[in-house]
Design goal:
With 369 residues, the protein is an alpha+beta fold. The protein contains 8 helices and 20 strands. β9 and β10 form a beta hairpin. α3 crosses α4. The relative contact order is 0.11. The structure holds adenosine-5'-diphosphate and magnesium ion.
């Protein structure tokens, strides 16, 4: 347990000082400490090559950590073979057996575990009901759509009531609509069944939609572990700010620091007040992060009390149905985005001079990129 933290439920999974190298030189997972509580939906989010799959494979038992220990329900499992770990798995490429029927595919983990025929039949029927595919029990995988095959893979991972289910980019092969539908289905299943899920994706919106907590990976290091809203509102560094959600960057130099805030002189001209989140101190370079929906356009220099204000030039506007974006040149950033109400973009002309304002608390001073 971390000091000072309130624990809601005991950790089901604990990564403790985990390191992994494949070639004996380069660490692809560096000092991972992560607790996953029973019933939690935790997502490992990060770009390709950041160590997400390696982490999942070590938990599943298909890779051995180079250093550290993994605990499952307080038992060290580094030397426990995969089939003894009571973990269900779902991968991107379904991995269904093509020659078996859907019912036989779902029954497979039960037959491996020696479940009686009667009980297996009952459980497969329940699993088919769960994925709403009772009518397709006798078909073969080749006769199903991608989404249906992924549902079967899900049922197969859940049918033996594992204490833990691991999913590695399970929706990566599906088109956008189906992916979003399956995201909600998996989330509902998780809530209904109370299982613990460790989910891997490189898609930040998928992670935000589904997770209780997200561990953001980059280069084998967890940059931040937090709830989705905390990651969005309080990123601890530029990598997290850029990886989660839309983000405008302004580069500058810290002039003064006053408790939680600092004054920053912008490289492209002007001075703003920002939250001092991750800066080295006065004189240091910084990258400011401002979300597009936290910026307001004003026709003249007027702005709210204490708000930052910078001159801007309209580049163009983008209509997106439920909202619109203004693309501006602000302090040398020629793609500074401001989110607008739908319709509000009609009055902006390319080349027009205008001002942007944003509150100091919505402007984060982070490590320079
Ligand atoms: N079996 C392996 N042998 C050697 N290197 C590997 C192996 N699996 C992954 N890697 C390397 O480890 C790093 C992390 O990979 P991976 O865990 O698959 O990342 P992610 O799932 O985040 O894309 C990458 O540089 C990858 O090339
Ligand atoms: Mg991967």
């Amino acid at each position: 347990m971390e000091a000072g933290m309130v624990t809601l439920a005991p950790a089901l999974v604990r990564f403790s000082g985990i390191q992994k190298t494949y070639d004996g030189e380069h660490l692809v997972v560096k000092n991972l400490d992560l607790d996953i509580r029973k019933g939690e939906f935790v997502t490992l989010l990060g770009p390709s090559g950041s160590g997400k799959t390696t982490t999942l494979m070590m938990l599943a038992g298909f890779e051995v950590p180079t250093h550290g220990e993994i605990y499952l329900a307080d038992r060290p499992i580094k030397n426990m073979p995969p089939h003894k770990r009571d973990i269900g798995m779902v991968f991107q490429n379904y991995a269904l057996f093509p020659h078996l029927t859907i019912a036989e595919n779902i029954a497979f983990p039960l037959s491996v575990r020696g479940t009686s025929k009667a009980e297996a039949q009952e459980r497969v029927a329940a699993a088919l009901r769960m994925i709403k595919m009772e009518a397709m029990a006798q078909r073969r995988p080749g006769q199903l759509s991608g989404g249906q095959q992924q549902r079967v893979a899900l049922a197969r991972a859940l049918v033996f009531n594992p204490q833990l289910v691991l999913m590695d980019e399970p929706l990566g092969a599906l088109d956008k609509r189906l992916r979003e539908q399956m995201q909600l289905e998996i989330k509902q299943l998780h809530e209904r069944m109370g299982i613990t899920i460790v989910y891997v994706t490189h898609d930040q919106s998928e992670a935000l939609t589904m997770s209780d907590r997200i561990a953001v990976f980059n280069d084998g290091i967890v940059q931040q572990i937090d709830k989705p809203d905390a990651l969005y509102e309080h990123p601890v560094n530029s990598f997290v700010a850029h990886f989660i959600g839309e983000n405008n960057v302004l580069s500058g130099t810290v002039e003064t620091v006053d408790k939680d805030y600092c004054r920053v002189g912008l490289a492209g001209g002007g001075t703003v007040t920002a939250r001092a989140v991750n800066i080295a101190g006065a004189g240091a370079s910084t990258s400011l992060s401002v979300r597009p929906e936290r910026v307001t356009l004003v026709p003249d220099g007027s702005s709210g009390e204490g708000a930052n204000r910078l001159p801007a030039k309209v580049q163009n506007t983008i209509y997106l149905g439920d909202h619109a974006l203004a693309v501006l040149d602000v302090a040398g950033n020629e793609e500074f985005m401001v989110k607008l109400q739908p319709g509000a973009h009609g009055s902006l002309r390319p080349g027009e001079s205008i001002f942007v304002t944003f509150r100091p608390e919505d402007c984060l001073a982070l490590d320079p990129v």
